[in-house]
Amino acid sequence: MQKEYRTITEISGPLVFAEVDEPVGYDEIVEITTSDGQTRRGQVLETTSDLVAIQVFEGTSGIDRQASVQFKGETLKMDLTEDLLGRVLDGSGQPIDGGPEIEPDERQDIVGAAINPYSREYPEEFIQTGVSAIDGMNTLVRGQKLPIFSASGLPHNDLALQIARQATVPEEDEDGDGSEFAVIFGAMGITAEEANEFMDDFERTGALERSVVFMNLADDPAVERTVTPRMALTTAEYLAFEKDYHVLVILTDMTNYCEALREIGAAREEVPGRRGYPGYMYTDLAQLYERAGRIQGRDGSVTQIPILTMPGDDDTHPIPDLTGYITEGQIYIDRDLNSQGVQPPVDVLPSLSRLMDDGIGEGLTRGDHADVKDQLFAAYAEGEDLRDLVNIVGREALSERDNKYLDLADRFEEEFVQQGYETERDIDETIEIGWDLLSTLPKEELNRVDEEFIEEHYREDGPEILEASADA
Amino acid sequence: MSKATASDDVREDGVIESVSGPVVTATDLQARMNDVVYVGTEGLMGEVIEIEGDITTIQVYEETSGVAPGEPVESTGAPLTVDLGPGMMDSIYDGVQRPLDVLESKMNSAYLDRGVDAPGIDLEKEWEFNPEVEAGDQVTAGDILGIVPETESIDHKVMVPPDSEGGEVVDVKSGEYTVDDTIVELDTGEEIRMRQEWPVREARPTSEKETPTEPLISGQRILDGLFPIAKGGTAAIPGPFGSGKTVTQHQLAKWADADIVVYVGCGERGNEMTEVIEDFPELEDPLTGNPLMDRTCLIANTSNMPVAARESCVYTGITIAEYFRDMGYDVALMADSTSRWAEAMREISSRLEEMPGEEGYPAYLAARLAQFYERAGYYQNKNGTEGSVSVIGAVSPPGGDFSEPVTQNTLRIVKTFWALDADLAERRHFPAINWNESYSLYRDQLDPWFEENVSEDWAEQRQWAIDTLDEEAELQEIVQLVGKDALPDDQQLTLEVARYLREAWLQQNAFHPTDTYCEPEKTYGILGAIKTLNDEAFDALDAGVPVEEITDIDNAPRLNRIGVQEDYNEFIEELEADITEELREKY
Ligand SMILES: Nc1ncnc2c1ncn2[C@@H]1O[C@H](COP(=O)(O)OP(=O)(O)OP(=O)(O)O)[C@@H](O)[C@H]1O
Ligand SMILES: [Mg+2]
Fold it and tell me: What mean pLDDT comes out for the span A97-117?
């Protein structure tokens, strides 16, 4: 048994300092027992030959200098088994659903080692989410990390749930083979109400059976949030790379995770980086987000959809900023579109999927997909620009051409992006709607589309899927 | 770097005192500043970064979980070096030059384990050495001794190491040898092997730095056409996330007319390195027709790899680049992103509790950046050859704000500035390089080359493009207030021409098989076609044709399709004729 110390010298915020006389390893797990018999878990943040700094996951309240400190001689591990599917765990991996104890097949360090870039396989399998704004304009692929940039009061959860419900890989459906699909849900500091929204949906759709849920709620200890996503991702990697599942990991809300990092940094009196967040936050976030991907020779995959709420709707805030620098694109939820009633209110212009270029095209989605997407982006951007001008000079002062672009921008939002959270559109339908919209412009304007595709798809006699617009 | 290369007098003489993330302190360690040490029972690789009394501070290049005080530290007695010799092309290394493919098989895992070491070049493989000296020849440091055909594209030149005294050749081998076999013996008793080592933080010696006069052709219209970089030049690409830094760097790695490309992925995404590993062997070098990977060396310290190795990876890269320069090659080095390197410096510095400078970066940030970019240049080498190292650094400013220290300190050194723009990226105008903000200070010194090799009026045509784009920027401000139709006819026409400059010339799709690479002749040709439209259109306007009729002509939109034409000459010729005809018919 490990040695027990009663040598706490200082307690400060989430940190406890204790004297030791035997060496303790960096990152090692610690168990602290308070005078009234409660146990708290923590982790070594700094170790010297006689003093150790410990970060306590469940908070330090109730700990006094008489508390006993025991070092476990190992780093934090996650108990892994396929039986985790269908289970609900707390933020540090303990079951809270009243089900049986977890009997692990193996235990893994939750600080995952980096995947060797040489061993990775480049992600390029199209995932059909059934959401036009994503599939058509910012396509998701298997093994991608694509966060949702949202803000408080916006329906990011509805979109995340819609994706979790609808995501399929069309080709595989056809040949019927392919690995099974699993969802890992890691909640960090979200409200009980939000948590219920997710749980109800999982139960309603039967998704819970193929899910593992980690719950750290708003009133749970903040420091625990730093281990929740690592537990979730360790489980995801196990299911993906050892059990061949295609795992979709939803992490929400990354903002709360980062707040916890800041709290620990402040308690350690570190030199803060931008806006008080630790200087190593980029590296720390990368160690989470980079745990997505595909590995050569393995059938499964880890796809991540982290959700974050941008403080003050500001995407230059360090949390979205650093995230955007690490992830492979981002999906913006927009407040204006939301108040116009667009569901999902995705702002496609600043949104981006960097893995899209290799994931679409002939044999993957459709040969004309890239061209249609490029043209829609250009046309919508032009229409949006004109909106400012129209406010000043009025529609009459604009040329016929400009008016067409203005109309297209409106219809793009109302008919392409807008679809409702319960509607599923396949990729064909999405691209055909795109053609309906592009065909409201003169052919010559379609300079990003190959002439052959124009020949084949341009609607000479009005839209094929959408209603003809009132004034046409 | 490898254990095999460390000097023999390894002493197990230090003891770990404390561990905090990548920073470890040790007592009783006999080591010099910057010596490489092995830390803990697992022998994790690290480097001495501070010595204070009996306490030595070490940055560790691997994860330190579980490492405890009391564990041993041993010094190799040598600074961080790279192994140089045949076998570096077509390879991928981590930040301290361990080959990632070798690590995969040694660790037998897709994950990077700890405490495993591997030499930077294959010590067992035999290479065909063809001598270029014979017994009796006098040789000095840097001289070329012979040639090894390393890949189809690259002849590896085996050189006398820079720190050699030189002497008279007494014995030369010819045939198949490993990099550690002696291939030349000097009368001083020195035995020269194909393998050299060089400390990464020290520039390799040269004779003289010269003014670069040749462009590094990138095959990207906006770069070659407006903001060219010289062979031996420096460039920075700052931009917010998602604006196109990596795509631009990849484009340069693919298409730049350098002999050798060293690509350093510094603190960025794993998948982006995988993409290069998967794509490059399939792509052809437009100059030689050989697989691009044959001339490429990759260094990957992805964002989730240990941060200390991020600090060293740019040095590993530039040392390899210098070595090939010494052979007389033109080398291009891309570093994506230098901001991650600067942040690694900041992280280590803050763990050392150094006095922070601006935004927490260490006070020596500017000096380190300058030292790094100064290693670029067009050089007269010791052996009489000429070679160059061009350095292109991506910068990732927080919040996309260029006023931050890394961007600002970089701009003080580099001579080419390619400013990426979130707004252009958002509307998918790629490459999203802002033509109003960017600049190249090499333009004038490179003009003679373009005039001689592409066209006499290269500089003149470019100036016309710049003037037109400038005018557009001014007119756009007015349009924002009153609308386009309120402008006089000639200005409306200028806007139309400028639109083609943006859409047909500046925009270039990196993912289109043809458009991805545009030779300078084509860059010139497209510009010429737009100029033809301009001239003919203004003639028509002068002759009284209404502006709407001019801007509405059927042939003009075809300008946007030149980029994707393989046989562009014919296409342009026809198009110019058609535009001319269509416009002249109107009056
Ligand atoms: N020349 C180009 N042609 C076509 N698409 C481009 C081009 N440049 C950039 N893009 C698009 O922009 C996306 C983002 O580019 P990139 O990954 O290079 O951004 P970045 O500046 O490196 O971002 P980060 O700082 O986050 O790494 C690409 O995935 C691609 O879709
Ligand atoms: Mg990048």
Answer: 92
Question: Could you give the number of structural domains in chain A?
Answer: 3
* Complex confidence, ipTM: 0.91
Which pair of tokens denotes residue B6? 């460390």
A and B: number of Cβ contacts within 8 A: 221
By Cβ distance, the residue of B66, B112, B267 closest to A116 is: B112
Confidence (pLDDT) at B4:
39
pTM of this structure: 0.93
Structure tokens at B152: 């189809």
CB of B340 less than 8 A from some CB of A? yes
Tell me the C-alpha to C-alpha distance, in Å, between residue B297 and each of A93, A132, B267, B392: 43, 40, 17, 15
CA B87 from chain centre, in angstroms, equals: 20
Rounded CA gap, A446 and A453, in Å? 10
The closest ligand to the CA of B250 turns out to be: 1
CB-CB under 8 Å, A117 with B302: yes
Position A179 scores a pLDDT of 64
Per-residue tokens: B134: 């014979």
pLDDT at B359 over 50: yes
Read off the pLDDT of residues A7-39 as tens digits, 9 standing for 90 and up.
Answer: 999 998 889 999 999 999 998 999 999 988 888
Give the type of residue at B232: G
| Rounded average pLDDT over B349-375 | 90
**The predicted structure's pLDDT at residue A177:** 53
- DSSP-assigned letters across all residues of A302-315: EEEEEEEEPGGG-T
Q: B44-49: long-range contacts (C-beta < 8 A, 24 or more apart)?
A: B44/B114, B44/B115, B45/B1, B45/B96, B45/B117, B46/B308, B47/B79, B47/B80, B47/B308, B47/B312, B48/B75, B49/B348, B49/B352
pLDDT band at A59 (very low <50, low <70, confident <90, very high): confident
Token output for B355: 């006095």
Contact B65 A27 (CB under 8 A): yes
- CATH code of the domain made up of B11-79: 2.40.30.20
Q: Which residue of B has its CA nearest to A445?
A: B557
Distance CA A330, CA B516 (A): 25
Taking a C-beta distance cutoff of 8 angstroms, is the pair B413, B256 a contact? no
Nearest by CB to B398, from A109, A274, A447: name it. Answer: A274
Contact B18 A325 (CB under 8 A): no
What Rg, from alpha-carbon coordinates, does chain B have?
27
User: For ligand 2, a single-atom ion, which residues have Cβ within 5 Å?
Assistant: B 245-246
Q: How far apart are CA A346 and CA A160, in angstroms?
A: 12
Q: For residues A13 and A232, what is the distance between their CA atoms, to the nearest angstrom?
A: 26
The architecture that CATH gives domain B127-194 is Beta Barrel (2.40)
Mean pLDDT of B557-574: 94
Q: Which of A24, A43, A116 to mutate against chain B (most B CBs within 10 Å)?
A: A116
Under a CB-based contact definition with an 8 Å cutoff, are residues B550 and B537 in contact? yes
- In this prediction, residue B5 carries a pLDDT of 44
Distance CA B273, CA B112 (A): 15
Q: How far is CA B529 from CA A457, B179, B460, B553, in A?
A: 30, 54, 15, 15
A75: closest chain B residue by CA: B66
Please check whether residue A183 lies inside any domain of the structure.
Answer: yes
Write down the domain spans for chain B: 11-79, 127-194, 208-441, 458-584
Residues of chain B found within 8 Å of residue A352, distances taken between Cβ atoms: 242, 425
CATH architecture of B458-584: Orthogonal Bundle (1.10)
Ligand 2 centre distance from Cα of residue B343 (Å): 16
**Residues of chain B above pLDDT 70, percent:** 98
The answer to whether residues A70 and A33 touch, using CB atoms and an 8 Å cutoff, is yes
Strand (E) or helix (H) holding B265: strand B260-266
pLDDT band at B6 (very low <50, low <70, confident <90, very high): very low
Closest alpha carbon within chain A to B476: A389
A381 → closest Cβ in B104, B278, B426: B426
